[in-house]
Amino acid sequence: MYNCCVEITGSQAWFYVFNQVFEADENLNFDQYLNEFAINYGPLQQKFFLEFWFLNGDTIAADEYWRRGNNRELINTGEEETSTYNYKGECTEINTPWDVFYESIYAEQFETYSIIFYKYYQHLHQSLRESIETGGNVDIDQNQALDKSFVDEFKQLELLGLPTAFGRYQKNFKTHIYEEKKSEQIYSGFFSDEDIDCSDMDVEDEINLTEKTKHGIKKVIGKKKKNRKLRNVPEFLLETKGMLKYWRKRFSLFSRYDEGIRLDCESWFSVTPEKIAIHLANRLQCDIIIDAFCGCGGNSIQFAKTCKHVISIDIDPVKLSMAKHNADIYGVSDKIDFICGDFLQMSRSGRFRSNVVFLSPPWGGPKYKREIDYDVESFLQPCSASELMEIAKTISKNVAFYLPRNSCVKQVIKLAGKGNQCELEHNYLDSRLVAITAFYGEGIISTKQR
Ligand code: ADP
What we know:
Helix content: 40-55%
Radius of gyration: 24 Å
Mean pLDDT: 77
Order of helices and strands: EEHHHHHHHEEHHHHHEHEHEHEHEHEE
Shape: globular
Number of strands: 11
Largest sheet: 9 strands, mixed
Strand content: 15-25%
Low-confidence stretches: 77-83, 131-141, 163-207
Strand order of the largest sheet: 1-2-10-11-9-8-5-6-7
Bound molecules: adenosine-5'-diphosphate
Distance between the termini: 10 Å
């Protein structure tokens, strides 16, 4: 039994979560799963996007309108009601600046969503490809079905009466998609190597050179590079080539980074980005949660906001003191017990009880990206995924596992144990797959679509 649904967090349009629920049955037919996915690709993509737009579209458009310097009050002029698009695709003439703006935001969102949805399909395809290879020509059939869906995509929009004035979007979108398809490197991560490596000391900002026209309007006449010294960058990030890209993403890790967040070298590439930590905390809200490998506290801080009590464990006292310091900055340290020790030994003592156990064990540093299929049974530390699962289940039936994006999905599903279910989440941030989160236990698997 399987299921596919898409969840998107509130108004955070750039953070997408794709979910599937699987039963850990040895006879689970992945070929069939992928085949059905490919055949229904177009309608699924459409359905999920329209659901998303119905829930969040107006807020996103209004926020963007305001953020780009427009007057918020203009948004709700009476005119808008007679000429806006609704999720059913009912569309009337565009005649106000707001309508034009609304349409452009819709098109932007649709483009991003389409790209991410395609990547999601690719990632799933890649991680289940073993079964495809043994399953004959399914691969070819799937891609044919997919190609067809791209060709039909805008026709479908037209039929639905949705905005189709995607002239420039359509062109870019298609180019992008086909480039993606050619790309051999399927796993491009949040901190992927495609990122610009700015390991030199200066950041160059492009600034516009302008001159005033006789009507007093500023006109861009050229561009000039401006050097800005990097300030307050931790020494170790400057010393190691390729590490500055992590620093550039500091606010994605902790939005309050500038208030004095502390991270050691390892944590820069292993801490959970804040938007994902917030999403997980919302999903896992309960009375008591154990964060078994808490590191510098990215997850624990967010758990403290949604759970009554958090038990944060780490074997490294330095990381634990950083976690406490960081939790203080977010004003939540009084809700967290910080315990220094080996999770494996402590759990064997039988002293712990909690509603949920969250496992974010060491992935083995950034080299995990080199694997096409990350073997969760041999590469995770301090022990295999199944041993960790066995230990966690002595504390609670509800276990969430935060894993590398290239984890072998079949192994992850198997962890549920025969006949049990597992929910897989693909977490995308800014169109990059950051990680996979697997949920086990009836208390935390979402049942709404089954
Ligand atoms: P990686 O960068 O390889 O993913 P992490 O930094 O994410 O590693 O590791 C997660 C945390 O797990 C680290 O803070 C580490 O100190 C902690 N840790 C490792 N082994 C144990 C253990 N046996 N018990 C508790 N914490 C551990």
